TrEMBL record:
Its cofactor is Zn(2+). It holds the Pfam family Peptidase_M18. This is M18 family aminopeptidase. GO terms for cellular component: cytoplasm. The gene is apeB. It comes from Marinobacterium nitratireducens.
Length: 433
Protein backbone atom coordinates (compact mmCIF):
# COMPACT_ATOMS: atom_id res chain seq x y z
CA UNK A 1 0.00 0.00 0.00
CA UNK A 2 2.85 2.41 0.78
CA UNK A 3 4.43 1.82 -2.62
CA UNK A 4 1.03 2.24 -4.28
CA UNK A 5 0.52 5.63 -2.65
CA UNK A 6 3.99 6.82 -3.60
CA UNK A 7 3.35 5.88 -7.23
CA UNK A 8 -0.08 7.52 -7.05
CA UNK A 9 1.43 10.79 -5.84
CA UNK A 10 4.02 10.66 -8.63
CA UNK A 11 1.23 10.17 -11.18
CA UNK A 12 -0.78 13.09 -9.79
CA UNK A 13 2.26 15.36 -9.84
CA UNK A 14 2.99 14.42 -13.46
CA UNK A 15 -0.60 15.11 -14.59
CA UNK A 16 -1.51 18.81 -14.29
CA UNK A 17 -3.93 18.55 -17.26
CA UNK A 18 -5.87 15.77 -19.02
CA UNK A 19 -3.24 15.82 -21.78
CA UNK A 20 -0.45 15.14 -19.31
CA UNK A 21 -2.55 12.54 -17.48
CA UNK A 22 -3.13 10.57 -20.68
CA UNK A 23 0.52 10.89 -21.74
CA UNK A 24 1.61 9.54 -18.34
CA UNK A 25 -0.87 6.66 -18.56
CA UNK A 26 0.40 5.83 -22.04
CA UNK A 27 3.98 5.82 -20.79
CA UNK A 28 3.11 3.43 -17.99
CA UNK A 29 1.10 1.17 -20.30
CA UNK A 30 3.94 0.91 -22.82
CA UNK A 31 6.34 0.06 -20.01
CA UNK A 32 4.07 -2.93 -19.30
CA UNK A 33 3.97 -4.12 -22.92
CA UNK A 34 0.77 -2.45 -24.14
CA UNK A 35 0.90 -1.54 -27.83
CA UNK A 36 -0.39 1.81 -29.06
CA UNK A 37 -2.93 1.62 -31.89
CA UNK A 38 -3.75 4.75 -33.86
CA UNK A 39 -7.39 5.22 -34.78
CA UNK A 40 -6.52 6.07 -38.39
CA UNK A 41 -4.69 2.74 -38.92
CA UNK A 42 -5.88 -0.79 -39.61
CA UNK A 43 -5.76 -3.02 -36.53
CA UNK A 44 -4.72 -6.64 -36.22
CA UNK A 45 -5.71 -7.83 -32.75
CA UNK A 46 -4.30 -11.03 -31.30
CA UNK A 47 -5.67 -13.29 -28.52
CA UNK A 48 -4.20 -12.13 -25.23
CA UNK A 49 -2.92 -8.94 -26.88
CA UNK A 50 -2.61 -5.73 -24.87
CA UNK A 51 -3.40 -2.43 -26.59
CA UNK A 52 -4.34 1.18 -26.03
CA UNK A 53 -5.66 4.04 -28.13
CA UNK A 54 -6.08 7.76 -27.48
CA UNK A 55 -8.25 10.52 -28.92
CA UNK A 56 -7.43 14.23 -28.78
CA UNK A 57 -4.60 13.35 -26.41
CA UNK A 58 -7.05 13.78 -23.51
CA UNK A 59 -9.04 10.49 -23.55
CA UNK A 60 -7.65 6.97 -23.53
CA UNK A 61 -8.89 3.39 -23.79
CA UNK A 62 -6.62 0.48 -22.83
CA UNK A 63 -7.70 -3.12 -23.16
CA UNK A 64 -6.63 -6.72 -23.09
CA UNK A 65 -8.02 -9.30 -25.51
CA UNK A 66 -9.12 -12.61 -23.95
CA UNK A 67 -6.45 -15.29 -24.27
CA UNK A 68 -8.61 -18.34 -25.01
CA UNK A 69 -12.24 -17.38 -25.61
CA UNK A 70 -13.80 -15.00 -28.12
CA UNK A 71 -15.03 -11.64 -26.89
CA UNK A 72 -18.59 -12.72 -27.69
CA UNK A 73 -18.20 -15.60 -25.25
CA UNK A 74 -16.14 -13.90 -22.55
CA UNK A 75 -17.57 -10.38 -22.51
CA UNK A 76 -15.55 -7.40 -21.28
CA UNK A 77 -14.83 -6.36 -17.72
CA UNK A 78 -14.80 -2.57 -18.08
CA UNK A 79 -13.77 0.24 -15.73
CA UNK A 80 -14.49 3.87 -16.57
CA UNK A 81 -13.18 7.15 -15.14
CA UNK A 82 -12.53 10.68 -16.37
CA UNK A 83 -9.35 12.65 -16.93
CA UNK A 84 -10.61 16.21 -16.43
CA UNK A 85 -10.99 18.22 -13.23
CA UNK A 86 -12.61 21.61 -12.56
CA UNK A 87 -10.04 24.35 -13.10
CA UNK A 88 -9.33 27.79 -14.50
CA UNK A 89 -8.48 27.90 -18.22
CA UNK A 90 -6.57 30.60 -20.06
CA UNK A 91 -8.73 32.60 -22.47
CA UNK A 92 -7.74 32.77 -26.18
CA UNK A 93 -6.67 36.44 -25.95
CA UNK A 94 -5.70 36.56 -22.28
CA UNK A 95 -3.26 39.46 -21.89
CA UNK A 96 -4.45 42.31 -19.67
CA UNK A 97 -2.40 45.41 -18.73
CA UNK A 98 -3.87 47.04 -15.62
CA UNK A 99 -2.38 49.22 -12.88
CA UNK A 100 1.16 48.31 -13.89
CA UNK A 101 0.61 44.54 -13.90
CA UNK A 102 0.43 41.94 -16.64
CA UNK A 103 -2.54 39.62 -16.07
CA UNK A 104 -4.17 36.64 -17.74
CA UNK A 105 -7.90 36.48 -18.36
CA UNK A 106 -9.30 33.14 -17.17
CA UNK A 107 -12.41 31.08 -17.87
CA UNK A 108 -14.02 28.74 -15.33
CA UNK A 109 -14.07 25.08 -16.42
CA UNK A 110 -16.63 22.92 -14.63
CA UNK A 111 -18.02 23.36 -11.13
CA UNK A 112 -14.96 24.94 -9.53
CA UNK A 113 -14.85 25.73 -5.82
CA UNK A 114 -13.34 29.17 -6.41
CA UNK A 115 -12.26 30.48 -2.99
CA UNK A 116 -9.24 28.12 -2.62
CA UNK A 117 -7.70 29.45 -5.87
CA UNK A 118 -6.77 32.75 -4.26
CA UNK A 119 -3.23 33.27 -2.89
CA UNK A 120 -1.86 30.02 -4.35
CA UNK A 121 1.41 29.47 -6.21
CA UNK A 122 0.04 28.73 -9.69
CA UNK A 123 1.65 27.42 -12.86
CA UNK A 124 0.41 26.92 -16.42
CA UNK A 125 0.21 23.68 -18.41
CA UNK A 126 -1.63 22.17 -21.35
CA UNK A 127 -1.22 21.76 -25.09
CA UNK A 128 0.08 24.20 -27.69
CA UNK A 129 -0.45 24.05 -31.47
CA UNK A 130 2.09 25.87 -33.62
CA UNK A 131 3.59 26.39 -37.07
CA UNK A 132 7.20 25.34 -37.58
CA UNK A 133 9.84 27.31 -39.47
CA UNK A 134 9.29 25.10 -42.53
CA UNK A 135 5.54 25.82 -42.57
CA UNK A 136 4.40 22.47 -41.17
CA UNK A 137 2.08 22.21 -38.18
CA UNK A 138 2.99 20.70 -34.82
CA UNK A 139 1.70 20.38 -31.30
CA UNK A 140 3.35 19.80 -27.96
CA UNK A 141 2.55 19.53 -24.30
CA UNK A 142 3.74 22.47 -22.25
CA UNK A 143 4.31 22.89 -18.53
CA UNK A 144 5.90 25.93 -16.92
CA UNK A 145 6.36 23.77 -13.77
CA UNK A 146 7.45 26.69 -11.59
CA UNK A 147 5.00 29.18 -10.03
CA UNK A 148 4.31 31.93 -12.58
CA UNK A 149 0.86 33.21 -11.59
CA UNK A 150 -1.15 34.24 -8.54
CA UNK A 151 -4.69 35.50 -7.87
CA UNK A 152 -4.27 37.74 -4.80
CA UNK A 153 -7.08 38.19 -2.32
CA UNK A 154 -8.37 41.63 -1.45
CA UNK A 155 -7.16 42.68 2.01
CA UNK A 156 -9.73 42.42 4.80
CA UNK A 157 -9.20 46.15 5.48
CA UNK A 158 -10.72 46.97 2.07
CA UNK A 159 -13.73 44.68 2.43
CA UNK A 160 -14.67 44.11 6.06
CA UNK A 161 -17.57 41.82 5.10
CA UNK A 162 -15.50 39.16 3.33
CA UNK A 163 -15.80 36.68 6.19
CA UNK A 164 -19.57 37.11 6.21
CA UNK A 165 -19.86 35.77 2.71
CA UNK A 166 -18.57 37.01 -0.62
CA UNK A 167 -19.93 36.32 -4.09
CA UNK A 168 -17.00 35.77 -6.46
CA UNK A 169 -17.38 37.44 -9.85
CA UNK A 170 -15.51 35.12 -12.22
CA UNK A 171 -14.94 37.90 -14.77
CA UNK A 172 -13.52 40.56 -12.46
CA UNK A 173 -12.04 38.64 -9.49
CA UNK A 174 -10.10 35.90 -11.27
CA UNK A 175 -7.57 37.44 -13.70
CA UNK A 176 -4.19 36.17 -12.52
CA UNK A 177 -1.08 38.32 -12.17
CA UNK A 178 1.94 36.92 -14.03
CA UNK A 179 4.32 39.88 -13.94
CA UNK A 180 4.89 43.61 -14.09
CA UNK A 181 3.56 45.59 -17.03
CA UNK A 182 7.04 46.03 -18.53
CA UNK A 183 6.93 42.34 -19.43
CA UNK A 184 5.85 41.48 -22.96
CA UNK A 185 2.14 41.47 -23.51
CA UNK A 186 2.37 38.88 -26.28
CA UNK A 187 1.33 35.70 -24.50
CA UNK A 188 1.97 33.56 -27.55
CA UNK A 189 5.58 34.75 -27.60
CA UNK A 190 5.90 33.69 -23.96
CA UNK A 191 4.68 30.25 -25.01
CA UNK A 192 7.29 30.11 -27.78
CA UNK A 193 10.00 30.88 -25.24
CA UNK A 194 8.74 28.19 -22.88
CA UNK A 195 8.61 25.60 -25.68
CA UNK A 196 12.20 26.44 -26.56
CA UNK A 197 13.22 25.90 -22.92
CA UNK A 198 11.53 22.48 -23.08
CA UNK A 199 13.58 21.55 -26.16
CA UNK A 200 10.88 22.13 -28.79
CA UNK A 201 12.80 23.76 -31.60
CA UNK A 202 11.82 25.53 -34.83
CA UNK A 203 8.55 27.03 -33.53
CA UNK A 204 7.79 29.97 -35.80
CA UNK A 205 4.39 30.91 -34.41
CA UNK A 206 1.96 29.65 -31.77
CA UNK A 207 -1.40 29.29 -33.48
CA UNK A 208 -3.58 28.19 -30.58
CA UNK A 209 -3.54 26.51 -27.18
CA UNK A 210 -5.56 24.78 -24.48
CA UNK A 211 -4.00 25.81 -21.17
CA UNK A 212 -5.00 25.58 -17.53
CA UNK A 213 -3.69 27.00 -14.30
CA UNK A 214 -2.76 24.54 -11.58
CA UNK A 215 -1.46 24.59 -8.02
CA UNK A 216 2.25 23.80 -7.78
CA UNK A 217 1.99 22.40 -4.23
CA UNK A 218 2.97 18.73 -4.43
CA UNK A 219 0.72 15.86 -3.27
CA UNK A 220 1.33 14.96 0.37
CA UNK A 221 0.46 12.42 3.02
CA UNK A 222 -1.11 14.17 6.00
CA UNK A 223 -2.27 13.10 9.46
CA UNK A 224 -0.59 11.80 12.59
CA UNK A 225 -0.15 8.43 10.91
CA UNK A 226 -0.05 9.70 7.32
CA UNK A 227 -3.53 8.32 6.75
CA UNK A 228 -4.75 11.10 4.45
CA UNK A 229 -3.73 12.01 0.91
CA UNK A 230 -3.98 15.66 -0.13
CA UNK A 231 -3.59 16.67 -3.76
CA UNK A 232 -5.11 18.54 -6.65
CA UNK A 233 -7.25 16.63 -9.16
CA UNK A 234 -8.11 13.63 -6.98
CA UNK A 235 -11.48 13.92 -8.71
CA UNK A 236 -10.91 12.04 -10.86
CA UNK A 237 -7.27 11.18 -11.61
CA UNK A 238 -7.37 9.04 -8.49
CA UNK A 239 -9.81 6.71 -10.25
CA UNK A 240 -7.78 6.80 -13.48
CA UNK A 241 -4.74 5.59 -11.58
CA UNK A 242 -6.74 2.94 -9.72
CA UNK A 243 -8.11 1.56 -12.99
CA UNK A 244 -4.69 1.66 -14.62
CA UNK A 245 -2.99 -0.22 -11.81
CA UNK A 246 -5.79 -2.79 -11.67
CA UNK A 247 -5.61 -3.44 -15.43
CA UNK A 248 -1.82 -3.78 -15.39
CA UNK A 249 -1.87 -6.06 -12.36
CA UNK A 250 -4.75 -8.35 -13.37
CA UNK A 251 -4.34 -11.80 -14.90
CA UNK A 252 -4.06 -12.11 -18.66
CA UNK A 253 -6.88 -14.54 -19.49
CA UNK A 254 -10.10 -12.48 -19.65
CA UNK A 255 -11.18 -9.55 -21.79
CA UNK A 256 -10.64 -6.33 -19.82
CA UNK A 257 -10.90 -2.63 -20.69
CA UNK A 258 -10.20 0.73 -19.07
CA UNK A 259 -11.74 3.90 -20.53
CA UNK A 260 -10.83 7.35 -19.23
CA UNK A 261 -12.83 10.13 -20.89
CA UNK A 262 -12.31 13.87 -20.95
CA UNK A 263 -15.07 16.48 -20.44
CA UNK A 264 -17.04 14.74 -17.67
CA UNK A 265 -17.01 17.91 -15.60
CA UNK A 266 -18.85 19.81 -18.36
CA UNK A 267 -21.42 17.19 -19.34
CA UNK A 268 -19.48 14.56 -21.36
CA UNK A 269 -21.04 15.59 -24.69
CA UNK A 270 -18.03 15.76 -26.99
CA UNK A 271 -16.08 13.60 -29.42
CA UNK A 272 -13.91 12.42 -26.52
CA UNK A 273 -16.51 12.47 -23.73
CA UNK A 274 -18.53 9.55 -22.41
CA UNK A 275 -21.58 10.77 -24.32
CA UNK A 276 -19.55 10.76 -27.52
CA UNK A 277 -18.86 7.79 -29.82
CA UNK A 278 -15.31 6.89 -28.75
CA UNK A 279 -16.05 3.74 -26.75
CA UNK A 280 -18.83 2.55 -29.06
CA UNK A 281 -16.57 2.92 -32.10
CA UNK A 282 -13.81 0.95 -30.39
CA UNK A 283 -16.21 -1.87 -29.52
CA UNK A 284 -17.33 -1.96 -33.15
CA UNK A 285 -13.71 -2.44 -34.18
CA UNK A 286 -13.22 -5.20 -31.64
CA UNK A 287 -16.31 -7.04 -32.90
CA UNK A 288 -17.58 -5.68 -36.24
CA UNK A 289 -20.43 -8.20 -36.51
CA UNK A 290 -23.45 -6.71 -34.65
CA UNK A 291 -24.88 -9.91 -33.21
CA UNK A 292 -21.53 -11.00 -31.78
CA UNK A 293 -21.03 -7.53 -30.33
CA UNK A 294 -24.46 -7.61 -28.69
CA UNK A 295 -23.64 -10.98 -27.18
CA UNK A 296 -20.41 -9.51 -25.82
CA UNK A 297 -22.25 -6.56 -24.22
CA UNK A 298 -24.76 -8.93 -22.61
CA UNK A 299 -21.85 -10.73 -20.92
CA UNK A 300 -20.07 -7.51 -19.92
CA UNK A 301 -20.14 -5.14 -16.98
CA UNK A 302 -18.86 -1.60 -16.43
CA UNK A 303 -17.66 -0.18 -13.12
CA UNK A 304 -17.74 3.60 -13.24
CA UNK A 305 -15.16 4.84 -10.73
CA UNK A 306 -15.63 8.43 -9.57
CA UNK A 307 -15.00 9.75 -6.08
CA UNK A 308 -17.76 9.93 -3.46
CA UNK A 309 -18.59 12.46 -0.73
CA UNK A 310 -17.36 11.43 2.71
CA UNK A 311 -19.17 12.80 5.76
CA UNK A 312 -17.44 16.01 6.77
CA UNK A 313 -17.35 16.19 10.60
CA UNK A 314 -18.25 19.90 10.50
CA UNK A 315 -21.16 19.41 8.10
CA UNK A 316 -22.63 16.01 8.94
CA UNK A 317 -26.15 17.32 8.40
CA UNK A 318 -25.48 17.42 4.63
CA UNK A 319 -25.72 13.61 4.50
CA UNK A 320 -28.43 11.02 4.95
CA UNK A 321 -27.78 9.65 8.44
CA UNK A 322 -27.77 6.02 7.26
CA UNK A 323 -25.55 6.63 4.23
CA UNK A 324 -22.54 8.58 5.47
CA UNK A 325 -19.26 7.18 4.10
CA UNK A 326 -16.06 7.73 6.06
CA UNK A 327 -12.55 8.17 4.71
CA UNK A 328 -10.55 4.92 4.93
CA UNK A 329 -13.81 3.09 5.57
CA UNK A 330 -13.82 1.38 2.18
CA UNK A 331 -14.92 2.18 -1.40
CA UNK A 332 -18.44 3.58 -1.71
CA UNK A 333 -21.26 2.15 -3.85
CA UNK A 334 -23.22 5.14 -5.20
CA UNK A 335 -26.98 4.66 -5.54
CA UNK A 336 -29.76 6.90 -6.86
CA UNK A 337 -33.33 5.83 -7.62
CA UNK A 338 -33.59 8.47 -10.37
CA UNK A 339 -30.62 7.01 -12.29
CA UNK A 340 -28.14 9.78 -11.59
CA UNK A 341 -25.99 6.77 -10.74
CA UNK A 342 -26.31 3.56 -12.78
CA UNK A 343 -25.93 1.06 -9.93
CA UNK A 344 -28.47 -1.78 -9.84
CA UNK A 345 -29.02 -4.38 -7.15
CA UNK A 346 -27.33 -6.93 -9.46
CA UNK A 347 -24.18 -4.91 -10.10
CA UNK A 348 -23.99 -3.92 -6.44
CA UNK A 349 -24.24 -7.56 -5.41
CA UNK A 350 -21.47 -8.56 -7.84
CA UNK A 351 -19.18 -5.89 -6.41
CA UNK A 352 -19.95 -6.85 -2.82
CA UNK A 353 -19.14 -10.47 -3.70
CA UNK A 354 -15.77 -9.50 -5.19
CA UNK A 355 -14.97 -7.18 -2.28
CA UNK A 356 -15.70 -9.93 0.25
CA UNK A 357 -13.17 -12.17 -1.48
CA UNK A 358 -10.53 -9.44 -1.05
CA UNK A 359 -11.71 -8.69 2.51
CA UNK A 360 -12.34 -5.08 1.51
CA UNK A 361 -15.06 -3.15 3.41
CA UNK A 362 -17.95 -1.68 1.44
CA UNK A 363 -19.85 1.56 2.08
CA UNK A 364 -22.93 2.99 0.37
CA UNK A 365 -23.94 6.54 -0.49
CA UNK A 366 -27.41 7.92 -1.15
CA UNK A 367 -27.88 11.67 -1.32
CA UNK A 368 -30.33 13.30 1.09
CA UNK A 369 -33.85 13.17 -0.34
CA UNK A 370 -34.10 16.97 -0.16
CA UNK A 371 -30.86 17.60 -2.08
CA UNK A 372 -29.93 17.32 -5.75
CA UNK A 373 -27.68 14.43 -6.78
CA UNK A 374 -24.62 14.71 -8.97
CA UNK A 375 -23.81 12.18 -11.67
CA UNK A 376 -20.95 10.38 -13.39
CA UNK A 377 -20.04 8.77 -16.70
CA UNK A 378 -21.82 5.64 -15.41
CA UNK A 379 -25.40 6.41 -16.52
CA UNK A 380 -24.14 8.03 -19.74
CA UNK A 381 -22.02 5.04 -20.78
CA UNK A 382 -24.72 2.58 -19.73
CA UNK A 383 -27.21 4.37 -21.96
CA UNK A 384 -24.78 4.70 -24.87
CA UNK A 385 -23.75 1.03 -25.13
CA UNK A 386 -26.39 -0.80 -23.06
CA UNK A 387 -24.05 -2.37 -20.52
CA UNK A 388 -24.98 -3.14 -16.91
CA UNK A 389 -23.13 -0.71 -14.70
CA UNK A 390 -22.03 -0.02 -11.14
CA UNK A 391 -21.11 3.42 -9.82
CA UNK A 392 -18.46 3.39 -7.12
CA UNK A 393 -15.85 5.75 -5.73
CA UNK A 394 -13.27 6.48 -3.09
CA UNK A 395 -14.64 8.75 -0.32
CA UNK A 396 -13.12 12.24 -0.19
CA UNK A 397 -13.45 15.76 1.21
CA UNK A 398 -13.32 19.11 -0.63
CA UNK A 399 -14.45 17.80 -4.00
CA UNK A 400 -13.78 20.35 -6.77
CA UNK A 401 -11.42 22.35 -4.58
CA UNK A 402 -7.91 23.21 -5.76
CA UNK A 403 -6.68 20.71 -3.15
CA UNK A 404 -8.77 17.66 -2.25
CA UNK A 405 -8.47 15.04 0.49
CA UNK A 406 -8.86 11.26 0.46
CA UNK A 407 -7.61 8.28 2.46
CA UNK A 408 -4.46 6.29 1.82
CA UNK A 409 -6.22 2.92 2.25
CA UNK A 410 -9.37 3.37 0.15
CA UNK A 411 -7.65 3.71 -3.23
CA UNK A 412 -5.51 0.65 -2.52
CA UNK A 413 -8.59 -1.35 -1.50
CA UNK A 414 -10.53 -0.38 -4.63
CA UNK A 415 -7.55 -1.31 -6.82
CA UNK A 416 -7.48 -4.80 -5.31
CA UNK A 417 -11.19 -5.34 -5.97
CA UNK A 418 -10.98 -4.02 -9.54
CA UNK A 419 -7.98 -6.24 -10.19
CA UNK A 420 -10.08 -9.23 -9.16
CA UNK A 421 -12.95 -7.90 -11.29
CA UNK A 422 -10.69 -7.71 -14.36
CA UNK A 423 -9.64 -11.33 -13.85
CA UNK A 424 -13.12 -12.71 -13.03
CA UNK A 425 -14.03 -15.49 -15.53
CA UNK A 426 -17.82 -15.14 -15.16
CA UNK A 427 -19.87 -12.03 -14.42
CA UNK A 428 -23.35 -13.56 -14.73
CA UNK A 429 -25.82 -14.23 -11.92
CA UNK A 430 -28.20 -17.19 -11.86
CA UNK A 431 -31.83 -16.09 -11.85
CA UNK A 432 -34.33 -18.08 -9.84
CA UNK A 433 -38.05 -18.42 -10.51
Amino acid sequence: MQQFNQELMAYLAASPTPYHAVAEMARRLEAQGFERLREADDWSLQPGGRYYSTRNGSSIIAWRMPAARSLAESGLRMVGAHTDSPCLKVKPNPSLHRQGYLQLGLEVYGGVLLNPWFDRDLSIAGRVNYRRDDGSLGQSLIDFERPVAVIPNLAIHLDREQNNGRAINAQTFLPAIIGQADKTGDFRELLCQQLAQQGVANVAEVLDFDLSLYDTQAPALVGLDGEFLLSARLDNLLSCFIGLQALIGAGADEGALLVCNDHEEVGSMSAVGAQGPMLQQLLERLLPEPQARHRMIARSMLISADNAHAVHPNFADRHDANHGPSINGGPVIKINANQRYATSSETSAIYRHLAAQEEVPVQAFVVRSDMACGSTIGPITAAEIGVRTLDIGVPQFAMHSIREMAGTRDAWDLTRVLQRFFAEPELGMDQEG
